[in-house]
Amino acid sequence: MRISTSSALLILIIMDCGFSEANMVSGSIQDVKKKYVQSLMAIEGVRSIGIGKNPQGEMVIMIGLDKPRSAIPAELPTELDGYPVIIQTVGDIKAQ
Fold it and tell me: Is residue 84 part of a domain?
């Protein structure tokens, strides 16, 4: 099989950018949140799951914890289906 020069260049650019299945987003961020909300809310200390933006303007999944912690619980992910996760302290949430 013969690959054209432009195809080979495109492959090299994609590889150089770190493009891989590991960092591809899978579905809409709303779908990803819905997929994981129940299991995340079952983790001790988790009070909220939301969608927001990081300082770079990228869409992220936001996990709110009940109180500051010296260590992030190991069960909490750093990404979900390609979307970054931001963990924040939100305190206890009470209905009004």
Answer: yes
